């Protein structure tokens, strides 16, 4: 397993380099001009100097190489300097946002906690709800509980976040007045009252995200359980006198979790993309809102860095899913 992990990590390097090249080329070929939002009163020669200051006057391959060096070499040095108080990155030019003229990774680090509060909580809540629902729905196939679970899953799949987000705002914020409609990112949790306020403002965005995740995971869990409940080893386990709890929760569940692990692992990067809409609806000042603002402002370094971070998450969690396969099923070997 260790050799397999090392090989995959080494293979990930050229994969990520190719992905970064594709992202760079797509953004370069996309229509739009970073100077489009500059007032018309600014003289053309001033605009040209501004373009040169942003590095737009250099050839495409030079700009791509500079971004590679900044992201893969200088930014890790900045992290080491922040952790250990060293000065490896002192004087080096980092990836700079065209919109704010500040380092991109500093802005990302500031926004990540807000996204993790909402997205991370929603994913944990969805897993804790979806897995028991999928297990029991499969065990009690075609029961009223299974029918209700199917109905709720259809709603979760069908209703987009921009509709369900507005709906819960109208019901729980406008009509009932239980929760705030706008997420306060400036709230500092330093007391019990502030912690309660944080929970209240998280409930609605977490509810919207968890609904979609729960609908997907519960259906996968149900289908996987049904496939394994009819296998010969289950009948053999029951014939040996094992309790129904041991048969279902030990033997069937472990084998059923193998395909579900893939959905869970690959769903973590995907939910960051889904959170873009939810963050816009509830005004969560996180990664999603940062990406939308960067796209609207033609802030190519910010867009390129954020989309590449999403790609890194996908490659990383693909590896995590493969490693978990070997843990869940001893028959799977990568040697």
CATH class of the domain at 104-328: Mainly Alpha
- CATH topology descriptor of the domain at 104-328: MetI-like fold
Distance between the termini: 7 Å
Indicate the mean pLDDT: 78
How much of the sequence lies in strands comes to under 5%
- Can you summarize the main beta sheet? none
Specify Rg, calculated over alpha carbons.
24 Å
Unreliable residue runs: none
Structural account:
With about 325 residues, this protein is mostly helical. It has a domain of about 220 residues: MetI-like fold, CATH 1.10.3720. Helix content is about 75%, strand content about 0%. The chain is built from eleven helices and no strands.
Quick synopsis:
The protein is mainly α.
Strand and helix layout:
Layout (H helix, E strand, L loop, with lengths): L1 H28 L14 H10 L6 H25 L19 H36 L4 H15 L2 H15 L16 H38 L2 H8 L4 H39 L4 H10 L3 H29 L7
Helix pairs in contact: 1-11, 4-5, 4-7, 4-9, 5-7, 6-7, 6-9, 7-9, 9-10, 9-11, 10-11
Quickly list its features.
335 residues, MetI-like fold, mainly alpha, 11 helices, globular
